Amino acid sequence: MFRAMICRSHSQMAPIMQLDRYDRQLLDVLQQDGRISNQDLADRIALSPSSCLRRLRALEEAGLILGYRALLDAKKLGLSLMALIHISMDRHTPERFSRFEAEVGAIAEVLECLLITGQDADYQLKVVVADMDAYQELLLNRITRIPGVTGVHSSFVLRRVIDKTALPVGGG
Question: Which fold has domain 21-62?
């Protein structure tokens, strides 16, 4: 079963989980099918159901498993336009960034917000909307009105080539 180790990086302590092969297999299977029954999960990784459930609960309690979600088809919901937006900010202060992050966090169309380096932008947003009119509305009436936003560069997704949610835990 996993054990926590401490890794010192940039004067911060972050727990790193050392997982055995059963833990990695359990996580691999769950990332593919979060609705699998405990009995089927135990059968897939060759453990007893009680041992499997103990491991699962321990991984949840340790915070390694953040939750369980349903993946939805955006197009079937009428959300056919995805864009990546690079945002430049006027000032690089914690207060300015916190306010921006709080405001974009309240916008349902924003699927992802990343603070980035190496670009002429401070943030990258991944947004999904119905069409170009909805995108224009989102951009002009919501995103560019957030205090501190000084530049916006948009790219539109033509096709998702790789679209994963599973992390590589090495359980193969």
Answer: Arc Repressor Mutant, subunit A (1.10.10)
